Amino acid sequence: MVDVGEVASAVLPYLSAVAGAYGSAVVQRVSDGAADATADATLGAGRRLARRLFGSSRSSQVQSALVDLAGRPGDEGLADVLRAQVRAALAADLSLLADVVQLLRAAGGKFEVSVSNSQGVQVGDGNTQTNTFNAPPR
Length: 138
What we know:
Residues 119-138 are annotated as: Disordered. There is one protein chain. The protein is mainly α. The protein has one domain. Helices cover 60% and strands 0% of the residues. The chain contains six helices and no strands. It has helices at residues 4-22, 26-31, 41-54, 59-71, 76-92, 94-107. α3 (41-54) runs antiparallel to α6 (94-107), α4 (59-71) runs antiparallel to α5 (76-92) and α5 (76-92) packs across α6 (94-107). It is globular and about 55 Å long.
């Protein structure tokens, strides 16, 4: 069984990249059928995911949340709103959920991550991460 919340969270980095790259014109740029010659793999995947979500019954809510995030990239509160709108759209339409999962798999590239009951995760090349959980007080 696919967890809708996990899928919505997996979509967010792609949509955030699109919002950051295209700014307030994000809906127009995503909806434009022409390929963006300068788009990297993340932007291309983000455009495909956004286009599919724009075809959902909650299209206007997803678009509105994406435009808000495009206006203030990096705003965690707006990112949470977008995640919630994507989650609601996925939960309302199992066909959409299946399509988005397929798009995420296609965009996956070389990293495939499955996380359960984690307190921290980092994916990528050349990363450094230090986690200290339940450390004694100093």
